[in-house]
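Quick one: structure tokens for this chain, please?
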Amino acid sequence: MIYGHIHANTNAEYWPLIERSGLMLNAGVDVNNFVPVTFDEMVENNNEHKAKVAAQRMIHDNRELFAHAAELQHILKDCGGEDDGDHDD
């Protein structure tokens, strides 16, 4: 199904259905870079949009975990225990 006019609204109650479905494509201009697109370009743009939204949700849902990881990394660095990643010794 091709649809539009939702303005890439990922907060709507219907978004989880759209996000899970590979059979629904947003023809809206905001997802398609405000230019006419071919069907294949629309598929690619929708996949990119869904991936971006999933990444943003992961960051948002785990922001506390990321904050703790950054804090631990800072503590390790202050203690001289951070691995610099250089293993050519």
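Residues 39-61 form the longest helix (23 residues).
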